[in-house]
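Why do we care about 3D structure at all? Because function follows from shape, and shape follows, mostly, from sequence. That is the central idea of this module. The next example makes it concrete: a single protein chain, its amino acid sequence, and then its structure expressed as tokens.
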Amino acid sequence: MAGPSFRTIHQIVKAARLRLNQTYWDYLVGATETETTLRRNRLAIDSLALRPKVLNDVSDVDTRAEFLGESLTIPCMLAPIGSLQMFEEGGGATAAKAAGEFGIMSIASSVCTPDIEAIAAASDAPKIYQLYVRGDAAWVDAIIERVIASGYKAFCLTVDTAVVSRRERDIAKGVVPTSQSLSPAGDFSYQARLDWDDVKRIKDKFDIPLILKGINRVDDAAKALEHGVDVIYVSNHGGRQLDQGPGSLDILPEIIDEGAGRAEVVVDGGFYRGTDIVKAMALGASAVGLGRLEAWAMAAGGAPVVVNMLQILQHEIRTALALCGAAGFADLDASFVEAADPVYE
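And the structure:
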């Protein structure tokens, strides 16, 4: 893919800002009400310091990791983003192409375009499909059947969107994102009625790995494990659902302890740099979801810039691992991080 070439993440964010109007920019960077959860996501990451080891051979650093039996170039996935087509017209298909070219997974949102089959056909790389429930059990089953028939690696059910949150930047402008629209996507009230019986029915009926996205409590993680969920996805929707919540990375260790050896654990929420990824992996995450970072790159130039962004991120990860004295993620453990006061400018 040819296109703009950036050397830093900051340049990509700046290019996205220049390309997006104020409405789209606020939709991308904004969150719910006071936006406290959004800020705590970043605060949780910045409140951990890295403690490096020295005099280890790091002449050959391996940034690869395995998730759901698939090898990833870096332990990251392009997270599901509703209205992704606002930032680049190809939407989920563009993200799938970029992820496939670089060698990671993408998660397609059910409220981005194009449809299930078109995103699946965009690349041969493994993909995950994420669903907002907008219909009854028969409606959900029909979606999952299409997901399986299209060859997706896993099915992801978002569980932190029982009601529409109050994203005031959008409300002030009268913006109704596709993730919150009642039509033509369907009836939002079905999401409010979603419960553990639905999880059980899906696990019992379908032979596809199931991911629950939006887990924020140990007891919910325990229930997920009891229901045979394959992946616990720690997420607060980037601060775009419940306000006044904790940062995702603050929750991660206790969720990992609960799921140790029984499920893989993914986390997202404010992860923008290589050192952020290293911190999550040191704490035991299986992979990290990239949301706003993905959208900034999409807005800055589509698939080529998404690949460019991932290349920069890989360089940062490789550098951070080497400077930590680790030749790969297998060398990391929780001793590489410690609590520290965040730095304010």
